[in-house]
Amino acid sequence: MRIFILDKAYSGEKDYILRKREKDYLIKVLRLKIGDVFTCRDTKDNYYSATIVSEDMLTISPCEDIEATLLDHFSSYREKLPPIRVYQAICKGKKNEQIIRMLTEAGVEETIFITSTFCQEKTFNDHDKQRLYDIQREAVQQSGSKTKVNPIRTIDISEVVKDSPYKVLFLHQSSRGDTISLSKALSLIEEKQVSIIIGSEGGISDEECEALEGLGATPVLLSTNILRAETAGIFAVGAIETIWS
């Protein structure tokens, strides 16, 4: 664990009562002891130093030197990664868990799930949402990613351009009239911040592509083999971070 993520209900109190799952993770899995100190972060991206004062409680204080209380000594990327939002069409079963874990560890700003024509599953139940939230939180703790740990959001593909604060690119499985390469699309974005849309197993329909283009989104064709829905996003994010970094 690099950074412990505080519960979303935390609002700056000095004393932090550990939930059973948190206690089991810190005491039984990581085998931390009373008196151990580590870095933690709340859902508003504030960093703290936490001290274990009992098996049920931490004391929390503001932290200026994040690196000083990290629990591991592995190197990590120190520069700021470009802001990337991923709008991922809902895939089948546990693929969504794999997707959110990989994207979070890669350091995306946020992963938002979307519904589209070819999605075989159109929504998440409460259990699924909590499971995805927990995976996202664990991935941030393990990797030290700056990804926002927010409740899982789901919107329709038609709402993406309005929802996104950045220029929107969408990956398409075949070349369209205005399709350009990813590197070309990124070279046209001066602010170095972007949102990308990834389709589900069936991709994005022609009608949806036309609607997205009409709203100002740009179709992008990756210079690679055909990718699975669960690997296209992490491939694109890695390429964007490499090109812009």
List the helices and strands and how they pair.
Layout: E1 4-5, E2 15-17, H1 20-29, E3 37-41, E4 47-54, E5 57-62, E6 84-89, H2 95-106, E7 110-115, H3 126-143, E8 154-156, H4 160-163, E9 167-171, E10 180-181, H5 182-187, E11 194-198, H6 206-214, E12 218-221, H7 229-244
Parallel strand pairs: 1-3, 6-7, 6-11, 7-8, 9-11, 9-12, 10-12
Antiparallel strand pairs: 2-5, 3-4, 4-5
pLDDT averaged residue by residue? 89
Helix content: 25-40%
Radius of gyration: 20 Å
Structural class: alpha/beta
Biggest sheet details = 7 strands, parallel
Q: Based on CA inertia axes, which overall geometry fits?
A: elongated
Oligomer: single chain
How many angstroms separate the termini?
Answer: 25 Å
What amount of the residues lies in strands?
A: 15-25%
Q: Counting H and I runs of at least 4 residues, what is the number of helices?
A: 7
Q: How are strands sequenced across the largest beta sheet?
A: 8-7-6-11-9-12-10
Please write the string of helix (H) and strand (E) elements: EEHEEEEHEHEHEEHEHEH
Structural account:
It is a single chain. This protein is an alpha/beta fold and 245 residues long. The chain is 31% helix and 22% strand. It is built from seven helices and twelve strands. The protein has helices at residues 20-29, 95-106, 126-143, 160-163, 182-187, 206-214, 229-244; strands at residues 4-5, 15-17, 37-41, 47-54, 57-62, 84-89, 110-115, 154-156, 167-171, 180-181, 194-198, 218-221. The strands form two sheets. A seven-stranded parallel beta sheet has the order 8-7-6-11-9-12-10, sandwiched between helices. Strands 1-3-4-5-2 form a five-stranded mixed beta sheet. Helix 2 (95-106) links the parallel strand 6 and strand 7 (110-115). Helix 2 runs parallel beside helix 7 (229-244). The longest helix has 18 residues, at 126-143. It is elongated and about 65 Å long. The two termini are 25 Å apart.
